[in-house]
Design goal:
The longest helix is centred in the first third of the chain and has 54 residues. By secondary structure, the chain is an alpha/beta fold. The termini are far apart. The protein has an 8-stranded mixed beta sheet with strand order 3-4-6-5-7-8-9-10. Strands 1-2 form a two-stranded antiparallel sheet. The chain has a two-stranded antiparallel ribbon with strand order 11-12. The chain contains 16 helices and 14 strands. The radius of gyration is 28 Å and the shape is globular.
Length: about 600
């Protein structure tokens, strides 16, 4: 059995306090000096060899010069690797140092306030605090005030453990950047007996953390990585934390095999006289796959980050426009009710292209052309489906869309997807990530941002939202001013918040399909509370949906109804698409606020 890579264990407070990130700076200096030394020597040798044409002619001289050309080419690769490695090490040192300082400061502050700080980051009320409290206010009041201390300790615990997780991610990012710098080193000539080949570490468990996945990937040689992409694509195509380029190649490699499997299943079902429902299920999966294939075929600027035709009730897929491994700004859009891969992945991918282009335009107009954008269409869960009456599945879908169960299940995967994007990104600093949610997908997005362990998302924008189960950006792990909402005046989703009271009481086992706003009636049925209406919540920045002028002087159409927000109009974005693009580009000064 192949050995596993060194396990990626959780960091502890004591470890972090003893870390010396300046060791990265020292290593960077050594690599830089080595590159300079080799460059100097090779420059002198190149000059000598060039001069040999005057005195060493014939086959012998030509053979020497040809051999040296190869040596010089290999030396250039080494020089480039040392230079890039030095840059990666310096960048890693800065990133790790800043995250380490956060951990140390939070632990030190808790200790200074007499809390007990465990090595895993758990902060608890100490006996000393209790004794001091009793001495100050007496036992009765001390008991009353104890809950305040315990709540503060819990908050400190969450912050410290999130800081430890962020530091671990920074550490893995530095490892990844250094691996990337040295990946193209020349292979030494194979003289003598065959060299010992390091056994291939087996993949981590399917539920491994994104940092464990990336750490494992980094432990592989280039040949081993190529082998997984080519011969074992199912092991890496959907593994969060693996570079997007590898996942894309692996998932594209899987398409013919999955298609053959589904086509054979259809043939078998036909021969066996399968139930029409089962036959339709398989056919839908094949249609899902074909839609994905069509969306990425012949489009090298798109990366297939998720391809799963088996795990859920329908196919699942995620397509990135642009390279999220290298992008400075990344967005992930989660859709809502009635979304299927077969009907939506193509359109969502095109909308992602338009969104990327608009965000890039706004960056270019600001003189920030060196910054890049990647936008991702994510259908990585099973949105509720209401096909329409009298289809009995509408009852199931109506029940689901009125509850948050489906959203909660999808939120777990969406949260991992966010974290995987940060772990795989090879930039000098963590990317700016924006979470985008539409309709029921906004609920999934809001819950994803509340998953344990934190997230790397900076901004969130939701539109046509029935609720996100949060009252403030802080509830979502966001800074104040980084949560945005849009809702068109005639969007029927308003009825979920503004509808008659009778539609907001529990109606177990029923779906009021006949009442106004039927497509959204389930969301209003009161089975679950999705929190305050985001479109009326002043804690979130409300953005305009009406036609009007943008910050760069363009007149753009507004959005109407429930689905026009991301759609083009007259080959331009609507004001809603413009606003989303501004947030993705990290240009909040460009947005058009609600009027």
């Amino acid at each position: 059995m192949s050995p596993d890579p060194t396990p990626l264990t959780a960091l502890t407070v004591s470890q972090v306090k003893n870390w010396k990130p300046n060791a990265f700076d020292q290593q960077a200096l050594e690599w830089q000096l080595a590159a300079q030394d080799l460059r100097t020597r090779m420059t002198a040798t190149v000059s000598t060899v060039d001069g040999s044409h005057d005195y060493w002619i014939g086959e012998g001289g030509d053979a020497m010069r040809a051999r040296f050309a190869q040596v010089n080419n290999d030396a250039t690769k080494v020089i480039d690797a040392l230079t890039n490695g030095a840059g990666a090490a310096r960048g890693g040192a800065g990133n790790i140092s800043s995250h380490r300082l956060v951990v140390v400061n939070k632990a030190t502050d808790a200790e200074a306030n007499k809390y007990t700080v465990a090595d895993d980051g758990t902060v608890s009320v100490s006996p000393q605090q209790w004794t001091t409290l009793v001495a100050s206010v007496g036992v009765v009041k001390a008991n009353q005030m104890l809950s305040l201390l315990e709540n503060d300790a819990k908050l400190r615990t969450d912050e410290l453990k999130n800081a430890l997780a962020d530091l671990r991610t920074a550490d893995v990012r530095a490892e990844s950047a250094i691996q990337e710098a040295f990946k193209d080193l020349p292979t030494p000539p194979d003289f003598g007996p065959p060299r010992w080949v390091k056994p291939t570490p087996k993949p981590p468990a399917k539920d491994a953390s994104v940092d464990e996945n990336r750490h494992w990937w980094n432990s592989l040689t280039a040949e081993q990585q190529h082998d997984f992409i080519t011969n074992h694509p199912g092991d890496i195509g959907n593994r969060d934390g693996i570079p997007a380029s590898a996942r894309d190649q692996a998932n594209r490699n899987q398409i013919p095999q999955i298609r053959a499997t589904l086509e054979q299943a259809i043939t078998t079902a036909q021969a066996a006289g399968a139930d029409p429902k089962d036959y339709k299920e398989i056919t839908n999966r094949l249609n899902d796959l074909n839609a994905v294939d069509k969306a990425v075929d012949g489009k090298p600027d798109r990366k297939l980050l998720l391809l799963d035709m088996y795990s859920g009730r329908q196919g699942r897929a995620a397509i990135a426009v642009g390279d999220p491994d290298k992008a400075d700004h990344i967005s992930v859009t989660a859709p809502g009710l009635n979304t299927t891969v077969r009907d939506s992945i193509g359109g969502m991918s095109n909308e992602a292209t338009n969104l990327r282009d608009e965000a890039q335009k706004q960056l270019d107009d600001k003189g920030r052309k060196n910054e890049t954008v990647s936008t991702i269409a994510w259908i990585g869960y099973d949105p509720p489906q209401i096909p329409g009456w009298p289809d009995p599945n509408s009852l199931v879908g109506g029940n689901e869309v009125a509850r948050d169960d489906v959203a909660r299940a999808g939120a777990v995967d969406l949260s991992r997807f966010y974290n995987g994007l940060e772990a795989a990104n090879s930039g000098d600093k963590p990317p700016h990530i924006t979470a985008v949610g539409h309709s029921y997908g906004s609920l999934t997005t809001g819950l994803a941002l509340q998953q344990p362990g934190g997230h790397p998302v900076t901004d969130m924008v939701v539109y046509g939202s029935p609720g996100i189960e949060a009252n403030t950006p802080a509830d979502l792990g966001l800074q104040s001013g980084h949560g945005y909402v849009m809702r068109a005046e005639d969007d029927p989703i308003k009825w979920t918040q503004d509808g008659p009271a009778i539609a907001k009481v529990p109606l177990p086992g029923a779906f009021p399909i006949a009442i106004p706003g039927a497509a959204y009636a389930g969301e209003a049925a009161g089975y679950g509370d999705f929190g305050p209406d985001p479109a009326k919540n002043t804690n979130f920045t409300q953005l305009d949906t009406h036609a009007g002028f943008t910050a760069d002087g363009r007149w753009l159409d507004g959005a109407s109804g429930h689905s026009e927000y991301p759609q083009q109009s007259n080959n331009q974005p609507r004001i809603t698409g413009y606003n989303v693009a501004a947030i993705i580009a990290g240009l909040p000064e460009n947005v058009v606020p609600a009027r």
